[in-house]
Amino acid sequence: MKRRQFLVQGGAGLIGLSPAMSLAELRLGAPWLLVPMDDAQSDHLKAYGLAFRLLSRGGRAEWLLNYRGGAFLMPADTATVRDAALTGVTTESLDDSQVVGIRGQLQNGNMDAVPLEKAPKVAVYAPPNAAPWDDAVTMVLNYAGVKFEKVWDAEVLGSKLSTYDWLHLHHEDFTGQYSKFFLNYAGSAWLLEMVERNREMAKQLGYRSVPAEKRAVAVAIARYVERGGFLFAMCTATETLDLALAADGVDIAAAYADGTPMDPGASAKMRWDEALAFQNAALELSPTVAVYSDIDGHQVNSPERRQQLGSFTLFSFSAKIDPVATMLVQNHRQVIPDFYGLTTSFMRKTLKPSITVLADEPGAPWVKYIHGEHGQGTWTFFGGHDPEDPQHQIGDVPTDLSLHPHSPGYRLILNNVLFPAAKKKELKT
Amino acid sequence: MSARSLATILAAFAFATAPLAAQGEGISRAFELERRGEYVAAADAYRAVLRASPAEVAALLGLERVLVPLNRPGDLLPEVRAAVAANPTSSVVYGIALRAWAAVDQPDSVRAVAERWAALSPGDEAPYREWGAAALSRRDHQGAVEAYRRGRARLQRPDALAAEMAQVATAEGRYTDALSEWLVAVRRLPGYRLSAEAGLAQAPPSARPELLRALRQEDELVASRMEAELRVRWGDPAGGLDALVAALPADRRLTVEALLGLIDQLRTLQSAEGRLALARGLEELANRSVDSERPRLRLEAARAYTAAGNREAARRMLSGLADDRRAPGAVAAGASAALVQVLIGEGRLDEAAGRLAETGPALSRDEIESLRLRLIGGWLKAGNLSKADSALGADSTVEALALAGKIRLFQGDIAGAVERLKRAGPYAGDREDATSRTALLAMLQPIERDSLPALGRAMLQLEQGDTSQAIVALAEVAHDLPAGRGGAELSFLAGRLAAAGGNAGDAEHLLRAAADSEAPGTAPAAELALGELLLAHDRPSDAIAQLEHLILTYPESALVPQARRRLDQIRGAVPKT
To answer: Does any CB of chain B come closer than 8 Å to the CB of residue A140?
Structure first.
């Protein structure tokens, strides 16, 4: 069925979506649940988990783009009603005629309904013993109740990656330079452990150095996207993934990482055609400056270059023409306070022309949130480390998301998790 | 002097002071802009002052301050260079210069400034201290240590910069090295002792025995004081006091100073061990004090012993003090009051009543009233309800009504108890009393029967500390009452007591009885308590089921958010706090 045909069938079509109703369910009265995602919602983040678990049980839902903050429409089956009550997600009961009314509103405005059909199989790229509280995506997946598995270099370079629909990268340094913490945190137990673990993995997989092995991982991730995977990256993983991909035959790692100094002419030798998002960036040549290139606009670890945080604005897209971009920016807030990461933002001058900017800071030379296609798959990059901890420092206490159930920044992450659940053939961007 | 020459001098003076006045205005304006948070304008104003007077320290410091929130600390360098050129002997200017170079991450320039500054001030530690601080601001511990070592070598003083070295060692977790440096620093400047202890207190448990051993080996009071105070910080107040007492010197001034230091620290502890150590410390201090101070300290020690539950020691401190005609009046009265409290605590109520009657005239009205109510509470606890009732008389204060409510309750007069507890309201006693009285009232109100002697006996057993018998008795009364008419509330109380006493089986049974849908006011709390109990006994699946049942059955309960948070914690959805 074409998406348009599906939409015009209104309430009658929805009966086809609903699972068989039991007597108990019928006693519930209204057959539909609307999960509002505007200010009426008591826990925006857990609402995504509600949708995800419905899909995991084999159910189906619809994402009502631009309708009440990106609401979800679900069948009011017993399991979903119970789940919503347990997690404290606000729902509103609807009967068929009310649903038909909503559909009328969707047709007449910049809104649309996207069917959600299958829960994506989610993988998070993280070392085996990574602290679960130092990665915004892991935190929000745990909080929302979205199941995921962890993968690391062996799984990525093996065949397991192809079994996942969605892959998340966070603060991995794909240039193999340990996030350039090597000098500032020399002697710290956690850094020594990180270095040892990476060296051991590189050796085990037969690579001569950590940078060489990390580049191989980056290439494998790019191939995963090319073959139809969904990639979501935050913080320094965004920038370093592209740097590693473009550094084909170029030494961009400092001597402490691979035994040889960085090629002083590396910037001119980069193969940007192999990168996903960026081009023509100038690399940071000093091994003592915890900055990789001029891709990042904020340069948080360089005192003389660091830029202050502002706020970023989500773009509006046409829900009917650009459903993918529209899905990725669903939110109850359009302007969101910015937050630092090792890579906080992306300079406009380094973006490839083909990418879609989803959010930027008006008037600033950088953007915050970008999306693009690569082969049959898509990628989304979101700058910064933790949307609710703007100045995150190593050793800071973990963010407790129960204190931020309406976090608009974290919502953007969860938009990305549900995006692969949307009916693929209907998408057009 | 001619009029003309006077005019010339005045004119010259006016020309000389005009720039100064303008400069004063300029700096005032800059301060005001800074105070209002207009940092860009403030920076411009400070720069204007510096253009006229490049070595003006107030303006230079102001500019340094406002460039930080503007995130442009490196912009200070031109002004710093000008200031150094204008006043090449100012330590303050060098300090600012050093920080400016550090802010732009130029370690070679930092070093050069520090060396130049040190050459100008050959005996001064400041250049090396600032140099090290600049390195630390870049998290360059090694660079900081090198700066301090260079300072020591140049100054030819092995005790120079010891506190700074200690702080780096602490930051790196080298606690034994930190201790060595801190001892050097404290010997030179005793004021460093508290900083040393604050740093060393961070040592992990595994490192502590070695630190204590090293301190014991030092055989000097400064080390013993650090050992004692660290032991207190690490949860061993008695050990701390013993260590200090064993090392006290003959010099009374030093002894008193050391004991007072430890006592101040012990006063912050709320544990029974802490209170007991405080009482012992006060006793030690009293024994070493002059005669005029001793009675006050013995009284204070007695109060601390009472708070720690050691009535015998309290009595020992008070012996003779209450009747000592030489003791100051306030001390003797205080001792009498403390003695009455000790006697009440020991259950010697008649003796306490006699002592109170005897010493009453020396006490204030409030003290007498407070002790009288304590005494009635003592009779109440002893089960002598008639005596408590008659002593209370027709007193209608809220404190008396609260006690009267309890008396009626223990007599089994539920209606009378409810009536008096309601009248007492939340006003009698402290906050804890008020909360417990409200909870008691909430438990009694659903009971429709006016008289329940069995419940009175059970509550009296609880008051007397016989919890196990009270649980059995409460469960029996609860069994005879409908759940919605007080049975659930009594089961809930019995269940909580059993859980607190570690009797998980009885607790689960009683809490399940309390979680009755006929008592919707009690059931959610009982279910939450049951969930916690199951979790504490490693039954997370059962706990999850119970908490889910609570949420789904009582969605309007105020406890639902708490149950959801507990579920999130069990499932690892939020960090454990």
So the answer is: no
Tell me which residues of chain B, numbers 534 to 563, contact chain A at a CB-CB cutoff of 8 Å. Answer: 548, 551-552, 555, 560-561
What tokens appear for B393 in the block? 């008389």
Query: What integer is the mean pLDDT of A207-230?
Result: 96
A190 token code pair: 């956690």
A272 inside 8 A of chain B by CB: no
pTM of the model: 0.68
First to last CA, chain B: 83
A149 φψ region: left (φ > 0), alpha (ψ -120 to 50), beta (else)? beta
Label residue B444 exposed, middle or buried (CB < 10 Å: 0-12, 13-18, 19+).
Answer: buried
Q: Do B574 and A400 touch (CB under 8 A)?
A: yes
Strand partners, A278: A351
CA atoms within 13 A on the CB side of B484: 3
Tokens of B510: 């009683």
Residue B571 touches partner A, C-beta closer than 8 Å: yes
Test B552 with A304 for CB contact under 8 angstroms. no
Counting runs of H as helices and runs of E as strands, what totals does chain B give? 32, 0
Nearest-10 Cα torsion for B337, B343, B348, B350: -10
Cβ neighbours of B139 in A, within 8 Å: 184-185
Helix (H) or strand (E) holding A378: strand A377-382
Burial letters A42-78, b for 16+ CB under 10 A, else e:
bbbbbbbbbbbbbbbeebbbbbbbbbbbbbbbbbbbe
Least Cα separation, residue A160 to chain B (angstroms): 26
User: CB–CB of B104 and A304 under 8 A?
Assistant: yes
Taking an 8 Å cut-off on Cβ atoms, the answer to whether A143 and B574 are in contact is yes
B73 close to A (CB below 8 A): yes
Residue B355: strand, helix, or coil = helix
Tokens matching residue B401: 């009504």
Selecting from B172, B565, B573 the residue whose C-beta is nearest the C-beta of A142 gives B573
Region of B37 (left: φ > 0; alpha: ψ -120 to 50; beta: rest) is left
CA B36 to chain centre: 35
Pair of tokens at residue A260? 């040889």
Q: Where are the beta strands (DSSP E) in A117-261?
A: 122-125, 149-151, 166-169, 230-234
ipTM of this predicted structure: 0.80
Report the amino acid identity of residue B437. Answer: R
Chain B residue whose CA is closest to A289: B105
| DSSP class of B451 | B
Q: How far is A50 from chain B (nearest CA, A)?
A: 14
* A39 at B interface, C-beta within 8 A: no
* Residue B342 one-letter amino acid: V
Min Cα–Cα distance to chain B from A223, Å: 32
Rounded distance, CA B228 to CA B211, Å?
A: 12
- Alpha carbon distance A99, A18 (integer Å): 13
Nearest CA among B294, B348, B353, B342 for reference residue B321:
B294
Chunked into runs of 10 residues, chain B (577 residues) has average pLDDT values of 45 44 78 89 94 92 88 86 90 88 83 89 88 82 90 90 92 90 92 91 91 91 94 95 93 92 92 93 90 82 88 81 65 78 85 84 84 92 91 86 94 95 83 87 92 96 93 96 95 96 95 94 96 95 96 94 94 80
Residue among B139, B552, B561 whose CB faces A86 most closely:
B552
Within an 8 Å CB–CB cutoff, is residue A79 touching chain B?
Answer: no
Let me know: does A341 contact A392? Beta carbons within 8 Å. Answer: yes
Looking only at the bridges linking them, the beta strands covering A166-169 and A311-314 are unpaired
